[in-house]
Amino acid sequence: MSDSETDGLRRISGELDALPLETRRFATVYAYVLARVARTDPGLGDAEREFMERAVVEAGHLSAPQAALVVQSALSMGSLYGATEDYVVTREFARVATREQCEALLRTGFAVSAADDRVTPSEIAELNEIGAELGFDAAEVDAIRRDAFRQLGHVPAGNED
């Protein structure tokens, strides 16, 4: 990594540190839950990463470079701690977020799963678990999934309903 890249990372990190704690926490947890979805599919692609970054910009009200750093951190943390922290982090989001924010996160998770134009059974299983951890019952998760995929114009194999 060059000195200018290191300086850029430090600057972006400093900008994140200057944000209110609630903003940083929300964006970080949001990105972590999306990273859970992305990690279930081997070989995270550029489409999924870029989609996650755009989602964190929108939901977390961050700049694109800030969102990229948050998403990369979430992916790294998830790789290191994975299932150990997944439940705790998702439940923390459910605790501090509104029902609408939880639904938006779940919808975005379904969009992340479809970002590479293929949705795997493991991604659906992970999203079902995330939905339950966010406080949705199975019927609500199924309805959100169907609506999210319909809006995306995506029908994963075996989910034509």
Can you tag this structure with a few keywords?
8 helices; mainly alpha; 161 residues; TerB-like; 0% strand; single chain
Overview of this protein structure:
The chain is mainly alpha-helical and 161 residues long. The chain has a single domain, classed as TerB-like. Helix content is 78%, strand content 0%. The chain is built from eight helices and no strands. 38% of the residues are buried.
Report the average pLDDT across residues.
Answer: 87
The Rg value, from CA coordinates, equals 16 Å
Secondary-structure element string? HHHHHHHH
**Beta-strand proportion:** under 5%
- Runs in which pLDDT lies below 50 for 5 or more consecutive residues are 157-161
CATH superfamily: TerB-like
Assembly level: single chain
Biggest sheet architecture = none
Q: End-to-end distance, in Å?
A: 48 Å
The total of helices stands at 8
Name the overall outline: globular
* Number of extended strands: 0
